[in-house]
Each structure stands twice: as structure tokens, then as C-alpha cells.
């Protein structure tokens, strides 16, 4: 495919060319959709997208990802026109990034570096800034390690320590020291968050966590349900710092709703690791509100991207209400198609107010799932008892020949997690709250 121009206004912005290399089972349509998303990411970061390039290969070039012909074509365009950087949709190895910069004589970054940059722009709280900095440092550390053979000239051992260290070794040591400092800070902040969560648990206040693809409208849902007044921006990753608000549901049920960071395809592992203390809010919730922007393309792929991260933090089996947001942007035919694909979801619109009262009722119904269960925990799984005692209310405990017989009340997330040990099946009454099967 030839280079496609998309020159826009904004002379002060960095001019970027977006590049995607597809291979294997990735279709042209999937590659174009991913590149469109990369364009949104680049614009969110403040870049001006000057053009795009997609190449299909049987396998990526190990040295530059692109083939020699396309690389030469790209170099010619860069030489003839004024551009500031090239952004690859795929993650580049340190050597690939270095080779590309040498060939193109231009700054080259990948999708991971771009997302990290956006997170740095939008981090405001002390915790958010620390999480982003840690993710960036871990990313930089892999780049340093990748250049070790090239940069190190002194070797190791006697005579190379102290003032004799290479710049690479000094940088690596400083980064590792800073990561350790940030890790301590985040653990302290995580402890504070746990104390607040325990206080809510003692007060028996059930918790819902908002999850979803970035820019799906989670903050708008939070505002609509709680009147939180959180600033809503039509930008990717505009919310990094979790916001928690109380709300009253039908039946005078009190609950807590927490907004969380948005997810995205190929979310950098460094970010998932750094944001684990924040993502604990998801894992520790009683149920999830999975917000889906049904006005966009590839909703199924975005749902799967969110569930991939939920699986990574061990929260994929939690009770879930699927919120099909921005329904006011659909026509009747599009609504029918969404209903066919996602009959378990609930249409909502924060603009028109559609579905918000039904959502409150469904959330209230989900809380009815916190009920009485009888569990038989095998002796070899005895470590599970501590979680039951911490998150549930144990009514009776009895040792049996084949394990531990427990009668307890549990939140819906744990009912799903412990369903293999249920002796008396619990009916999940809230329609659509048990997730997709």
C-alpha cells in the first residue's frame, strides 16, 4: 500500500507518519482499525498525523520490521517532506528501533512508548504520576539493556566501579534505584487504599467498579449515576486516577461506584504492572459495570481487550453488568444488530438519560446475589479459607473427612470464583449480571 497522506492543520505540532506491519492471521481490516486507533492516540499525545503506511508480510523483518523496499519508500518520503517522527503500531525491540532511526535519520517510537507518553500527560495525582513514571522507567530499562553490548566499553570487575562506570551502567543503576523508591511509595499508597476499602467493607457498603475500553464513557456514567462532577473529555485515557463516589439504588440500597483507568488493545505490560495497586479496586469490587461504546466499530474486539486485562488481574469471572453506552448515536437497524450480538447488555445514554434508571435497578438486583452459600473446600485448597473470612461472613465452619464445610454469605464476585465448591447452587437473580457464558 502506498503512503497515504492525512495532512492536517497545526504547524506547531510534531508531524508523524504512522506505520503498521501485519502478518499471520491479522486481516487488512483489523490492521486499518488498529492504525485508526493509533491515529487517535497520536492526536491525543499532541501529534499531527501526516500519513500512514501499512505493509503485509509473511513474517516481520527481524532487523527493521518493515521490508527493505517499504523502508526505502518511507525514507524517500521523509527526505522529500518535513516530518518529526515515525510511530509504529507494533512494539519494536531496542535493536529494531535503533536500526530504523539509523536508516530514517528520524525519531522512531512504538505504540507502547506513545501510550506511556499519553499516560504521563494525564497523570495528576501523586499515585498516578508514580505509576506512570515506574512504567516509563521499566520501558527505558529494557532499552538500556538492549544497548549494553554496544555502549559498554570497560567490561566489569576491578577498575570499572565507582567513577569508572560507563554511562550505561550509571543510568541503569539510577533507574533501578528510582524504581525501588517508586515501588515503596506505591505500596504505601496501596496500604492507604486498602484501609479505606476495609472501612467500607466493615460498614457493609457494596462496591461496583466501572471498567471498559478507553473513551467508552465510564466517567459520564459515573457522573450520571452519582453526580460526581468528574471532568469528561473526548480523549483517550482522560481518566487515570480512580474516583469513588457513593450512590443510593432502588430499594434504598447504598453502594459505592469507582471509576477506573480505561483499557486498550495491546495495553503495555509495564502499565498493567504499575497500575496494579489501582486495579485492585476492580478486583476487590462486588460487581463490575463493563461500559461498551456501541457507537464505535469492533465492539466485540474491545470487549475482549478489556477481558484480557481483567483476566491478567484475576477479575474476569466477576459478576458483570454490560452497559451499552452512547445508544443515542444508533439508528433502529444498528440497535437491532447490537441487540442480536449482545442480548445480555443494557442500552444507556448519558445525553438523553435512556437506560439510567434501568441500570440503577439492575445494579440493585445484582446486590441481591449476595446471599447464603454452602461450600465444601478440599483440604489441599485450605488457603482459600482466608479470602472467605476476609470478604464474606462465615456463619458456620465444620471439618469433614473430605474438606471444610462452610456456610457463609459472599459477594457476587466470590460466588463465581467459588462455584466449583458450591454445595447448594445459588441463583443469580439479576438478569445480565452474571457475565457472558
Automatic annotation (TrEMBL):
Record keywords: Coiled coil, Cytoplasm, GTP-binding, Magnesium, Metal-binding, Nucleotide-binding
Domain Hflx-type G: 206-371
InterPro entries (alphabetical): G_HFLX_dom, GTP-bd, GTP-bd_M, GTPase_HflX, GTPase_HflX_N, GTPase_HflX_N_sf, P-loop_NTPase
Binding site for GTP: 212-219, 237-241, 259-262, 325-328, 349-351
Record has Nuclease as a keyword: no
Superkingdom field: Bacteria
Keyword Nucleotide-binding: yes
Main location: cytoplasm
Coiled coil: 165-192
GO molecular function: GTP binding; GTPase activity; metal ion binding; ribosome binding
Localization in the cell: Cytoplasm
Record GO cellular component, one term: cytoplasm
Residues annotated as binding Mg(2+): 219, 239
Cofactor dependency: Mg(2+)
Entry's family note: Belongs to the TRAFAC class OBG-HflX-like GTPase superfamily. HflX GTPase family.
Functional description taken from the UniProt entry: GTPase that associates with the 50S ribosomal subunit and may have a role during protein synthesis or ribosome biogenesis.
Cross-referenced NCBIfam families: GTP_HflX
Assembly with partners or alone: Monomer. Associates with the 50S ribosomal subunit.
Annotated protein name in UniProt: GTPase HflX
Organism: Candidatus Solincola sediminis
Name of the coding gene: hflX
Amino acid at each position: 500500500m502506498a503512503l497515504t497522506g492525512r495532512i492536517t492543520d497545526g504547524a506547531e505540532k510534531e508531524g508523524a507518519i504512522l506505520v503498521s506491519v501485519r502478518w499471520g492471521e491479522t486481516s487488512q481490516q483489523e490492521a486499518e482499525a488498529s492504525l485508526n486507533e493509533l491515529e487517535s492516540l497520536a492526536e491525543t499525545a499532541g501529534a499531527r498525523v501526516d500519513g500512514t503506511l501499512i505493509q503485509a508480510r509473511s513474517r516481520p523483518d527481524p532487523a527493521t520490521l518493515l521490508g527493505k523496499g517499504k523502508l526505502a519508500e518511507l525514507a524517500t518520503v521523509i527526505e522529500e517532506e518535513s516530518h518529526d517522527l515515525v510511530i509504529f503500531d507494533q512494539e519494536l525491540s531496542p535493536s529494531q528501533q535503533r536500526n530504523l532511526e539509523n536508516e530514517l535519520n528520524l525519531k522512531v517510537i512504538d505504540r507502547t512508548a506513545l501510550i506511556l507518553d499519553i499516560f504521563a500527560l494525564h497523570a495528576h495525582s501523586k499515585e498516578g504520576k508514580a505509576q506512570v513514571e515506574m512504567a516509563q522507567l521499566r520501558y527505558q530499562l529494557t532499552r538500556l539493556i538492549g544497548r549494553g553490548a554496544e555502549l559498554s566499553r570497560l567490561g566489569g570487575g576491578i577498575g570499572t566501579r565507582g567513577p569508572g562506570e560507563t554511562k550505561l551502567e550509571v543510568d541503569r543503576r539510577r533507574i533501578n534505584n528510582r524504581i525501588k523508591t517508586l515501588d515503596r511509595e506505591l505500596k504505601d499508597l496501596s496500604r492507604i487504599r486498602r484501609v479505606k476499602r476495609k472501612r467500607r467493607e466493615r460498614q457493609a457498603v457494596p462496591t461496583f467498579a466501572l471498567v471498559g475500553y478507553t473513551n467508552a464513557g465510564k466517567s459520564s456514567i459515573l457522573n450520571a449515576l452519582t453526580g460526581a462532577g468528574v471532568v469528561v473529555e473526548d480523549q483517550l485515557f482522560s481518566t487515570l486516577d480512580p474516583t469513588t463516589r457513593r450512590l443510593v439504588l432502588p430499594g434504598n440500597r447504598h453502594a459505592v461506584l469507582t471509576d477506573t483507568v480505561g483499557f486498550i488493545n495491546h495495553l503495555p505490560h509495564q502499565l498493567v504492572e504499575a497500575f496494579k495497586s489501582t486495579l485492585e479496586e476492580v478486583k476487590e469490587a462486588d460487581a463490575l459495570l463493563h461500559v461498551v461504546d456501541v457507537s464505535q466499530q469492533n465492539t466485540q474486539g474491545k470487549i475482549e481487550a478489556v477481558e484480557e486485562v481483567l483476566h491478567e488481574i484475576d477479575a474476569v469471572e466477576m459478576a458483570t453488568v454490560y452497559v451499552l453506552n452512547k445508544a443515542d448515536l444508533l439508528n433502529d437497524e444498528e440497535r437491532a444488530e447490537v441487540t442480536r450480538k449482545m442480548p445480555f447488555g443494557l442500552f444507556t445514554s448519558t445525553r438523553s438519560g435512556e437506560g439510567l434508571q434501568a441500570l440503577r435497578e439492575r445494579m440493585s438486583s445484582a446486590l441481591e446475589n449476595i446471599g447464603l452459600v454452602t461450600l465444601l473446600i478440599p483440604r489441599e485448597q485450605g488457603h482459600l479459607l482466608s479470602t472467605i473470612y476476609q470478604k464474606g461472613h462465615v456463619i458456620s465452619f465444620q471439618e469433614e473427612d473430605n474438606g471444610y464445610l462452610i456456610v457463609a454469605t459472599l459477594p457476587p464476585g466470590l460466588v463465581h470464583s467459588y462455584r466449583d465448591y458450591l454445595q447448594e447452587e445459588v441463583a443469580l437473580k439479576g438478569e445480565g449480571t452474571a457475565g457472558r457464558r
